[in-house]
Amino acid sequence: MPSRDGPAVEVVDLVKCYPRATTNAVDGLSFTVAPGETFGLFGPNGAGKSTTIGILTTRLRATGGRALVGGVDVSRDPVGARAHLAVVPQHNNLDRALTPRQNLLYHAAYHGVPRPEAEERAKELLERFGLAERADRRIEAYSGGMAQRLMIARAWMHEPEVLFLDEPTNALDPQTRLLIWSRIREMRERGVSIVLTTHAMNDAANLVDRVGIVDHGKLLTVDTPQNLVRGLAGQAILDLTVTPAARDDADEVVAALRELDGVRKAERRPLPVGAAGAAGAGRGAGLGPAGRAALAKLGPGALAKLAARARGNGNAPTATLSAAGAQGRIRVRLHLATDPANLLGPTLSLLTGRSAALNDIHIGEPSLEDVFIELTGRDPR
Ligand SMILES: Nc1ncnc2c1ncn2[C@@H]1O[C@H](COP(=O)(O)OP(=O)(O)OP(=O)(O)O)[C@@H](O)[C@H]1O
Predict the structure, then answer these.
(1) Is residue 371 part of a domain?
(2) pTM, rounded to two decimals
(3) Taking the CB of the first residue and of the last residue of the chain, which one, N or C, has fewer CB atoms within 10 A?
(4) Which positions fall inside the ABC transporter domain (predicted)?
(5) Ligand 1 pocket, 51 CB below 6 A?
């Protein structure tokens, strides 16, 4: 990678207002991307991510502010800026009149890569992206996943300093998604600066160094994924699937759980698909790493003992890990300010007191997607 002082990308008070629009698509956005950094630009539909990438890659002109790529101002010197960057756009813009190999060679020629070097690189990239066998066939035969792989290979042909990827895994099958994430990781390891938009933020969480969350054209926050997750209301999550007693009110059960010591927030969540049926019932404790750690602290058989204690002398109402019918079942997420192990007993006691059945319990940690929902809300755009 060419070494240069200063940020790989610098965006200062960037504004874009499309003709006849009543609001700005990008509304005073500022952020920088350090050399070698992988930066995730996340936001709901219509937040202004593609517009920002369009300006940075010289496809669109900004209405105001400044944007530099590789130290070059994209409005003053778009040709100079293009020498530093490559883009994988959201929509297929391959040249259908050319074969896949020709697409790569044409792109290299545009960027002044000498022909023998370009041919060598194209051969290597077609292999790395699993496209070698179809490299000289008509491009119409390419699936969406193949086209996406080819567009990423094309972006790599002139070994850019900064790579922009606009939703690189959108609408792809799991195999192609895995391949693409691993190729992006390789580029990162080679020192390329990467700006990435995606809705698959939990997939991207392990790849990005920092995340900027945008909505309505404005930056809501920018930080490392770890700090963003740590900054959430609670540090751990307890997901409960509960069947309240027939005479009880579901919202009152949630309100009571919210009052437990160590609970910062309690919210109703949609039941996972299939959970309403018999298949989801009575699976008991589904534990992630944090959950296993919490239970390890309690010692073996802890849940059984807790359940026995909660059952009391047999006349008391019971709360059990049960496979009760799906009717009336609710899912509640507790954001905790304490070790999940401290909440297991009180939760079970509370449910026992209300004659509620505990159908499932899962201890986890908040994800980047939880941070995103917290900041941008639940309403679809
Ligand atoms: N060519 C255009 N003309 C007018 N308005 C546009 C145009 N392109 C985008 N917009 C509007 O600008 C806003 C930002 O759109 P943009 O595509 O940048 O969002 P996005 O965050 O990339 O969304 P998505 O996740 O759906 O791709 C939206 O309100 C969109 O409707």
Answers:
(1) no
(2) 0.77
(3) C
(4) 9-241
(5) yes
